[in-house]
Structure formats: structure tokens, C-alpha cells
């Protein structure tokens, strides 16, 4: 219980750091969760903790700061929470945030995997990821923008990202049609 209070204090004083710590766990857990779910189908008995570490790294160092700053700016630019405002925020999220976040994810993963072609997976999987995300995140963000105060938006998105990370991890784990040398 004391550790939860300590985390709460860190989050309150330093929300960006708190979000980054949250995303470490959520992105890594999302990857491990995907591995466990798919393990029965692939008969692979070993968990790939390096994959989870890469997801955690990208989630905490790149995605968390991007989300934190994007939602702060969006809430300053588009004020309120009425139906029209919520719709405007969802459109802004899908048009501006989602494509950037998908690029950050695939390029960030390529960097930590030390791939020669940083854009190959983005080119191959980005559009399907965007289409899936448009459905998922539109539902998630309707609740977010309609009901949550600004300071809870990034953590809420982080928790929803756990489920999204399962999806991203699944897309990431699918074999590429093109052979990308590392």
C-alpha cells in the first residue's frame, strides 16, 4: 500500500515521469500477454523477454511523452467536453496523434532492434494498424474526452494501451512478407 502511495506522489508531482513508468509496465505486459495468448497456437513454450523490453522501451521513452504532451496541447486548444467538442477531439486524435504514434512505434522498435531499414515494417503494417486503431481508439477516446479530466487522460490511455499493445505486439510479431535483415 505504501508503494502505491509513493507512486501516486511521484505521478502527482511529475506526471510525465509517472506516465513513463506506467507505460514501461503496460507495454511490456501487453507484449507478454500477447505471447501467452498466442503460445497455445504456436506451441512456443518460452517467453521472449527481450521483445517485452523493446516494447517497454518504446512505450516509456517515446509513446508516453508523445501522448502526455499531445493531450495537454489538445486540451488547451480544444476546450470543453460537450458532444461536438468530444467529436472534434476524436477527429484530431485520429488525424494527428494516431499516425504519428504508429510511426513512432514502428520506427522506434526498428531502432531498438537495430534494423537496417527503419521503415519496412511501418510500410508493411502501418495502414492495417491505423485502420484497427481507428476503430479501437475512437471508442476509447469517446469515453476519455467526454468524461475524464485532463490529468487522468494519459493514464487512462495508458491502461487502454495495454489492450492496444496486445494488438500492436500481434501485428509486430507477424512475419513480414519482405525479409528484413537486422
From TrEMBL:
Membrane-topology descriptor: Multi-pass membrane protein
> Keywords assigned by UniProt?
Membrane, Transmembrane, Transmembrane helix
User: Do you know which Pfam families this protein is assigned to?
Assistant: Mpv17_PMP22 (PF04117)
Coiled-coil positions: none
Q: Which GO terms describe its biological process?
A: mitochondrial ribosome assembly
Task: Give the transmembrane region(s).
Answer: 20-37, 58-74, 86-109, 154-171
Asked if the keyword Transmembrane helix belongs to this entry, the reply reads yes
InterPro entries xref list: Mpv17_PMP22 (IPR007248)
Does the entry feature the keyword ATP-binding, yes or no? no
Q: Gene Ontology terms, cellular component aspect?
A: membrane; mitochondrion
Where in or outside the cell it occurs: the entry states: Membrane
Its family remark reads:
Belongs to the peroxisomal membrane protein PXMP2/4 family.
What's this protein's name? Mpv17-like protein
In its UniProt entry, the species of origin is given as Capitella teleta (Polychaete worm)
Question: Lineage of this protein's species?
Answer: Eukaryota, Metazoa, Spiralia, Lophotrochozoa, Annelida
Amino acid at each position: 500500500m505504501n508503494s502505491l502511495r509513493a507512486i501516486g506522489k511521484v505521478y502527482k508531482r511529475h506526471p510525465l515521469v509517472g506516465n513513463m513508468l506506467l507505460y514501461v509496465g503496460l507495454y511490456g505486459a501487453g507484449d507478454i500477454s500477447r505471447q501467452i495468448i498466442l503460445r497455445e497456437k504456436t506451441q512456443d513454450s518460452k517467453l521472449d523477454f527481450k521483445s517485452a523490453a523493446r516494447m517497454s522501451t518504446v512505450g516509456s521513452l517515446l509513446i508516453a511523452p508523445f501522448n502526455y504532451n499531445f493531450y495537454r496541447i489538445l486540451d488547451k486548444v480544444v476546450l470543453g467536453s460537450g458532444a461536438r467538442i468530444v467529436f472534434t477531439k476524436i477527429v484530431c486524435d485520429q488525424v494527428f496523434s494516431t499516425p504519428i504514434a504508429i510511426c513512432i512505434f514502428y520506427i522506434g522498435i526498428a531502432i531498438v532492434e537495430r534494423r537496417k531499414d527503419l521503415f519496412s515494417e511501418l510500410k508493411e503494417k502501418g495502414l492495417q494498424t491505423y485502420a484497427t486503431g481507428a476503430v479501437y481508439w475512437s471508442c476509447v477516446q469517446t469515453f476519455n474526452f467526454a468524461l475524464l479530466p485532463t490529468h487522468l487522460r494519459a493514464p487512462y490511455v495508458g491502461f487502454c494501451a495495454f489492450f492496444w499493445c496486445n494488438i500492436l505486439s500481434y501485428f509486430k510479431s507477424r512475419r513480414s512478407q519482405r525479409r528484413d535483415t537486422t
